[in-house]
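Explain this one:

_____
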Amino acid sequence: MKKIYGILLAALMPLLGLTACDTKDEIVFESQLPQFELREDAVLMEVIMPSGTAADDEIYISGEFNGGDDAAIGNPKWRLQQATNVDYKWGIYLFPNDFVSGKTPADGYHFVSSANGPERTFKNQEVVRTEYGKTNTRINLSVDRWKSYFDTPADPGEIEHDGYVVYVDDQTGWNQLYLYQWGDVNDLGGGWPGATPTGSINISGVTYKYFDMGAANNGLNQNLIFNNGEGTQLPDFAFTIDRDIFLRITDSGCEEIEPGQTVTHDGYTVFVVNLTGWDDLTLYQWGDVNDLGGGWPGVTPTGNQVINGVDYTYFDMGEANTGLNQNLIFSNNGSSQLPDFAYTIDHDVYLELTNVVKEIDPSTYTGGSGEIPGPDEPTETYCLYVCDNTGWNDLAVYAWGDAEVFGAWPGAVSFEARKVNGKIYWKYPVSVAGANVNLIFNNNGEGTQFDGPNVTFDQDIYITVTSDSAVIDEISE
């Protein structure tokens, strides 16, 4: 297993400098490129919006710091602007002098679309963000979904259906689509090759062919075989006629999807069922190309997709990376990590993550069948929170002892803040829970530094620092 620590990365740098530092070979995704210039008097937020967000949509940031939805929505001061060169990126400059009631974005905020409502997670949960930074810095964010994505779509023209409905996003390219059924009732809907679609309908911008299953057939356990009537057919899809169902079919398979869901992948894809309990799943890669997609702890998920009723988190690997032999390391944003998983990027792969990485079959997997983390395999994530009264332009924290938990010298610089007991603290995630270390505070390697206390990260630690001292704060949240 490859453990990622700052000291290991430091040791590898001379070798990597010979093999992987040619800028022509560096992998940079378009979404990572900045689209707005920094301003010394403002915090810049660049936000990737969900597909389908219209260019003329009005999108606002809303939180206690600007009066909430009633005050923010409709106020040009809090409206995001679309980037000129990348239509899915939007940006806003936040000026601290505009904040009200002594609040900052660290007290909580979310984004709102005038056309589509407030943002939601992939599982239709409300979103409260606390990411915030210093002026003259950029914060990169992404919106998973708008509320409208989860609104029940209406049938155009008030179509009346006969019983439950099978909606099909047909991506096969076939000239004709047929549905044959066998199970509790063989030849239900007609002998081979079966029935043609009852009709078609557009829902949330996606055109579905649909098959009315017949109210008299409610409750039957059937096997659906989609085919082209000319000898080509898909594997059986088991379905109990007790609900409407949305499917996407290609010439090689069938998967259940959410209404309106359209997914276009960049190259091959790693699909994972995350049963670790971690809040911040990241993927790091080493092998033919080290740091593929980014340095430790790697990249966050590309998105979520429902396949055969199972909700997968997925990472698109990139068409340009097809054929590479890589080792995948899943981690809790650099804190706990799972064993390496060897993978050649020449096929989609489906994995279950617990305290191990296990490959699964999406056609039979129903979720939650694997091992679970045991008591000797903790998944805790701890952080150092620093109230910065140094006056320095950049405060970096270095740690030595059990591990370089903030990376090699000069350590980590934070761009995320939170307010606790009326004070602003900057967040420094710890890469190894339980590590006993000695802290060194410095001005990001520019020559000024002083020793901080010895601490053990078996809990979150709060410290207030000046230019020459550090005091541990007692916090009760």
About this structure: The first helix runs from residue 6 to 19. The first strand starts at residue 43 and ends at 48. Helices lie at 6-19, 69-72. The CA atoms of residues 180 and 194 lie 4 Å apart.
